[in-house]
Automatic annotation (TrEMBL):
Residues 38-65 form a coiled coil. One of its GO terms (cellular component) is nucleus. Belongs to the HSBP1 family. It comes from the Eukaryota. GO terms for biological process: cellular heat acclimation. GO terms for molecular function: transcription corepressor activity. Keywords: Coiled coil. The keyword Coiled coil applies. Gene3D superfamilies: 1.20.5.430. This is Heat shock factor binding protein 1a.
């Protein structure tokens, strides 16, 4: 390999490494956002289930289901 080819290969490698690092950082950021939103959604679903159970108890539906 000539010196200019070696230099071009080195520059291309550096550009690719920087690009891959940039993509990795963006992917990690998006992944963290998704996990955070899923955790938040899980908490909201738990709260909703508790509220529905409380409403069913207040409406007396709890006793009807357990007696069946």
């Amino acid at each position: 390999m000539t010196e200019s080819n070696s230099k071009a290969a080195k520059e291309l490698t550096e550009i690719m490494e920087a690009t891959m690092q940039n993509l990795h950082s963006k992917f990690q950021s998006r992944s963290d956002q998704i996990v955070s939103k899923m955790d938040d959604m899980g908490t909201r679903i738990d709260d909703l289930e508790k509220n529905v159970a409380d409403l069913m108890t207040q409406a007396g539906m709890d006793e009807q289901q357990t007696s069946k």
